[in-house]
Amino acid sequence: MIHEVFMPALSSTMTEGKIVEWVKAPGDRVEKGETVLIVESDKADMDVESFYEGYLATIIVPAGGNAPVGEAIALIAETEAEIEVAKQQAAGAGSAAATPATPAATAAPEPVAVSPEPVAAPTATRSDRLVASPRAKKLAKSLGVDLGSLTGSGPHGRIVAADVEAAAGVTAKPAIATPVAPAVVTAPVAAPVATAPAAPAPTPAIAPGQFVPYSTFQQAVVRNMEASLNVPVYRVGYTITTDAIDSLAKQLKPKGVTITVLLAKAVAATLAKHPLLNARVTETGVQYNEAINVAIAVAMDDGGLLTPVLGRADQTDLYSLARNWKDLVARSRTKQLKPEEYTTGTFTLSNLGMFGVDRFDAILPPGTGAILAIGASKPTLVATADGLFGVKRQMQVNLTCDHRHIYGAHAAAFLKDLADLIENRPESLTL
């Protein structure tokens, strides 16, 4: 019997995927549950496993190619004798399924399974795969570094760009390198020789008139932004004094709690009192979400944007949230997040205050009801309650809402309660 391998849907928004690498080659033995290829989804590289055992008879879509979700990308034959039959079927029907006239063809297509942990991994041998980030793989190719000779310093032994860069400073001849991402975790390395370049190679300039096609990630962003145009939104701004929460953040910083985590916890606690802000519109009504999952926008090293999710943030203690957030950010940098870790947000935070931005408007992510844009906290001259002037740290926030179910009064009440919590009771976030 011959089975089809289909392009899987690795996330709810994925419409097509790019094949990063075929782990198996035509003619290779394939076991059930064994990784066959690596696919780039909207925002992560993921291993794709086989539901069948047999032989990878033929590859229809090669590495580097794109295919719509549900399209056949390879054929697996249960016996070696059927390999040639599968090749003939693929040659005669292109990317179509095996022809019904052939007794070995399957009656109905079945999708392949997706492994629980997404990774980006170049292959050293078919039996022993190296685990490396896509950026490390590209950098190694550019610098002529053998990935098989490296020990990864990233999560779970993953080879990151910093490992390749360090090795290149010792063994590789000077070359024009691709942009290097900052390493999430680094390991001690030997000092480079005197002739090695001391500074990272410059980012290659885009030539005038050059055309750069969208990546799979960028295509997903374009679709999401276009979908947002169909939603009637409005924005409400609010000024929040941050002296109290800034002081708390300084006390908790040694324990790994950042201001981002504090703000996420404050938003989650306020959403518990305003469930409408955590709800979303469907075709027939308003769906109130069971959990408060706070998504936080993170800028990627390649210019993209990802929104890792702090699940059930209102029910999780602050220190656990801090640990979860550190782990999510580290894995997002190397595209190791699972789809449920970046697609299940019910409310979104976008913080450009860390870049010194005073205020900005955020675009509503599809499938949610609101997003909060957070500006920088800065010393501001204000009038005090006793009629004098004083200096307080304040930040501007801007709430973008879906006007189909969230009205101005709802947004204003939410912001008022959020400001009260941040200004007067931030210590309650630690309870």
From TrEMBL:
Catalytic EC class: transferase
CDD domains: lipoyl_domain
Compositional bias per record (Low complexity), positions renumbered to this chain: 97-125
Superkingdom in the source lineage: Bacteria
Domain Peripheral subunit-binding (PSBD): 131-168
GO biological process, one term: pyruvate decarboxylation to acetyl-CoA
Annotated EC: 2.3.1.-
GO MF annotation terms: dihydrolipoyllysine-residue acetyltransferase activity
The keyword Acyltransferase is assigned to this record: yes
Keywords: Acyltransferase, Lipoyl, Pyruvate, Transferase
Cross-referenced InterPro entries: 2-oxoA_DH_lipoyl-BS, 2-oxoacid_DH_actylTfrase, Biotin_lipoyl, CAT-like_dom_sf, E2/Pdx1, E3-bd_dom_sf, PSBD, Single_hybrid_motif
Listed cofactors: (R)-lipoate
Any one of the GO CC terms: pyruvate dehydrogenase complex
Residue intervals of the Lipoyl-binding domain: 2-77
Acyltransferase listed as a keyword: yes
Family: Belongs to the 2-oxoacid dehydrogenase family.
Name of protein: Dihydrolipoamide acetyltransferase component of pyruvate dehydrogenase complex
Native organism: Synechococcus sp. (strain ATCC 27144 / PCC 6301 / SAUG 1402/1)
Lineage: Bacteria, Bacillati, Cyanobacteriota, Cyanophyceae, Synechococcales
